[in-house]
Design brief:
CATH superfamily of the largest domain: Porin
Number of domains: 2
Shape: globular
Structural class: mainly beta
Largest sheet: 18 strands, antiparallel, barrel
CATH architecture of the largest domain: Beta Barrel
Strand content: over 45%
CATH class of the largest domain: Mainly Beta
Distance between the termini: 56 Å
Length: 443
């Protein structure tokens, strides 16, 4: 009798254990960590070309590569913790001397010899992520190697790969107000798998870290954004960005960026400095959007005094960094020299569905030794990006541009190189670019 009861108890326990394991297994499968995971495979073919003679005899800068990328984004375990990984493999397809200025291929050697051009592979992103809260108030954070696009004073940009940083970042959201913090201490650049430290412009000192804080208000019509940050012992940076939509088709914008020198900046030689004590760039723009065309116009001015030379506002925070900048004055060239006033226009029209053709034009002027220097460029571009059908995950960008500027003292010193009559010398440029992207959703 006792054996019978014991057998019944064991059968009951076994059945309960089996049921519990099945429930646990099904619960794990139903967990958002698995259910919300995504895996994308994408390819990018990117070619860049530039012919110029600003600081040297006429040279061609050209690079061509192919990228294959896997991007995994997990869901959240217990609706709180997850991780993301991005892997990129780059194949060299072609390169000229000076290829490294295009930031597509790895420069495995000294100088700009085309034989130094190589492909590479890397885990561009690998980080843990956390989220807590609800729709009204929540926090999202990341720790590890990750990209930071327009986060505080920091940004990331993509050519064949996107540059990423090692550090921490997080955003606390309450209603329409966002408060963000980030701390980073090294980078994986766009054109390399090699971990690099941030450096001063003369490459003599390491910038130990960059920290930033940002507060923003965003709703469907208005965005107000202020960010402050420090590249340790090198630069302080202020960023103010505004956007307002008085009507559905009209957008008014403003961007203001300021840099202030710290001890390690002041310690550099004069020819390595971008400005004397501080530099500011002020910009405003207006945009009108219709269903099949748009036009955008911008006006900007830079204050970046430098003794006996041309100062300028540098978008970035030192070597191996990418600084946040959303003004129109950064095009094929940066129109941010001291006293420079620049006018920009961007016109686009969809001649056929899913295909936009446009003109991007910049014209700038500034004075140097009683001479007015004029600079500009005209770029024609076309973007085909199908929204349905077989090629809905394909996009093709092509661009061709001509520019005119002046010869400079060197690649790092943009002060005009004068002829025997004391006049600036004209320097034309020709540029071209193609980007072909295709994405496959594997999960």
């Amino acid at each position: 009798m006792k054996i019978k009861h014991l057998t019944l108890i064991l059968i009951s326990l076994s059945s309960y254990s089996t049921l519990a394991n099945e429930i646990t297994y099904n619960s794990f499968l139903d967990n958002t960590f698995i259910k919300d995971s995504k895996l994308d495979f994408s390819t990018r073919n990117h070619w860049k070309y530039l012919k110029e003679n600003a600081s040297q005899p006429k040279e061609v800068h050209s690079a061509w590569g192919q990228a294959f990328s896997f991007d995994y984004k997990s869901g959240y375990l217990f609706d709180t913790i997850g991780f993301d990984v991005t892997y990129d493999n780059i194949i060299k397809l072609g390169a000229s001397d000076y290829f490294a200025t295009r930031n597509l291929l790895y420069n495995d050697g000294k100088g700009y010899n085309k034989h130094n051009a190589h492909g590479f592979n890397k885990f561009t992103q690998r980080y843990a992520k956390i989220k807590v809260g609800n729709q009204a108030i929540n926090f999202n954070g990341k720790a590890g190697w990750h990209s930071l696009k327009d986060f505080g004073i920091i940004s990331s940009s993509k050519h064949l790969t996107r540059n990423s940083y090692l550090g921490y970042s997080g955003t606390l959201k309450y209603d329409n107000v966002y408060f963000s913090l980030a701390y980073i201490d090294s980078t994986l650049p766009r054109e390399s798998a090699k971990k690099l430290h941030f450096l001063t412009a003369d490459r003599k000192k390491v910038i130990d870290n960059i920290s930033t804080a940002e507060i923003a208000y965003k709703d469907k019509d208005l965005t107000l954004d202020y960010a402050y940050g420090v590249a340790k012992d090198y630069l302080k940076r202020h960023v103010i960005e505004l956007s307002y939509k008085p009507t559905q088709k009209l957008i008014l914008g403003g961007q203001f960026y300021g840099s202030y020198a710290l001890d390690n900046y002041d310690a550099m030689k004069q020819n390595k400095k971008e400005f004397e004590d501080h530099a500011w760039h002020y910009a405003t723009d207006i945009e009108w959007k219709e269903e099949d065309w748009s036009m955008k116009f911008g006006l900007a001015y830079t204050d970046a005094n430098k003794h006996n030379a041309i100062g300028y506002y540098n978008r970035h925070l030192g070597k191996n960094t990418r600084g946040r900048f959303n003004g129109l004055a950064a095009a094929g060239a940066d129109y941010m020299r001291d006293g420079e006033l620049v006018f920009t226009s961007v016109l686009t029209y969809d001649f056929v569905k899913d295909n936009s053709t446009g003109l991007y034009m910049n014209y700038g002027e500034f004075n140097y030794k009683h001479d007015t220097l004029k600079n500009g460029e005209i770029n024609v571009f076309n973007i085909w990006k199908p929204t349905s059908g077989t090629f809905k995950n394909l996009s093709i960008l092509s661009k061709l541009g001509y520019g005119w500027s002046y010869k400079t003292i060197s690649a790092s010193d943009i002060t005009p190189k004068l002829d025997k009559h004391g006049k600036a010398q004209r320097s034309p440029t020709l540029s071209a670019e193609t980007v072909i992207d295709y994405r496959f959703n594997l999960l």
